[in-house]
Design goal:
D-amino Acid Aminotransferase, Chain A, domain 1, 6 helices, alpha+beta, 2 domains, Phosphorylase Kinase, domain 1, single chain, eight-stranded antiparallel β-sheet, five-stranded antiparallel β-sheet
């Protein structure tokens, strides 16, 4: 069983018409993969993503099978794929990240502080860090396989892909964000921002990759949320903060991670999984 593509945190198996996406326990930050792993991280992320794909089943997506016992050929019942993988349609990826922001944080806040714009659009009102935006913003980015993604404006995306595809990507993205945001409120969570990926299944635009996991989204707790600061989040910010504290130069090789950071990361992933599982199981 050969891996066709090994990403920073995911392995991809090519079955011809289909792919198997397997979420590993590897962890990365600042484009570096660390030697240490977070036990069961891949299973947790896969579980969260599967729950969201099921919740949004009215939006076409790439999922074919989630039970590893039903995978075809040599991939059937392989223990290394159990609970951490999905069988999906092989699609033509649309090479843009479809980012939606409900709050002003991260790179968007840095851009706003620097030039008074968010994703290339001038903002007339005054915001402080982590403040809720007047409405969710669609802020696309060019997807790069290595290095950082490149933020672009709505107008630039429209120029590159055409009005019709642009509108489809924006409408899907805003629908996914707003419904997801409203759903997690029931468990005291704030969905600050997230990113989606789409592809073509023949001529049809479908949702691909992962969905609303802490690796693709920034979740905050209502209880610890405040404006003017960067609230504690359920994503890899714990790791990033640690790396900033030890003043790592962000170049390979990565530093050794202490057990305390691994345990803290795992605890946050598990806590978020419990909350999302609970809110998505409620009718």
């Amino acid at each position: 069983m050969k891996v066709a593509y090994k990403g920073k945190v995911r392995d991809v198996y090519d079955l011809g018409e289909y792919l198997i996406l397997s979420s590993t326990d590897r962890i990365s930050a600042f484009d570096c993969v660390f030697d240490e792993t977070v036990p069961d991280k891949g299973k947790i992320l896969n579980s969260i993503s599967r729950l969201w794909f099921d919740f949004f089943k009215d939006i076409p997506n790439h999922i074919v099978e989630t039970d590893y016992n039903k995978y075809p050929g040599e991939y059937k019942s392989r223990e290394e794929l159990k609970d951490r993988s999905v069988l999906v349609k092989k699609c033509k990826r649309i090479d843009y990240e479809c980012v939606v922001r409900g709050y002003l944080s991260g790179s968007a806040y840095k851009e706003y502080k620097s030039i008074g714009q968010i994703a290339g659009v001038a903002v007339s009102r005054h915001y402080v860090e982590s403040e809720k935006l007047s409405e969710p913003l669609f802020t696309p980015a060019v997807k790069n396989d290595s290095g950082h993604d490149e933020n672009i404006s709505e107008a630039e995306l429209k120029n590159r892909v055409g009005v019709e595809l642009f509108q489809t990507l924006k409408d899907y993205s805003l629908t996914l964000y707003t419904k997801g945001r409203d759903k997690v409120k029931t468990e005291g969570l704030i969905l600050c921002d997230t990113k989606f990926e789409f592809g073509f299944d023949k001529e049809k635009v479908i949702l691909i990759d992962e969905l609303l996991t802490p690796d693709s989204s920034r979740y905050w707790e209502v209880e610890t949320y405040a404006v003017g600061i960067s609230p504690p989040s359920y994503d890899k910010q714990i790791l990033r903060n640690y790396l900033e504290k030890i003043e790592w130069n962000k170049n390979p090789p990565p530093p050794k991670l202490p057990d305390s950071i691994i345990k803290e990361l795992l605890s946050k992933y598990q806590e978020l999984q419990e909350k999302i599982t609970k809110c998505l199981s409620e009718k």
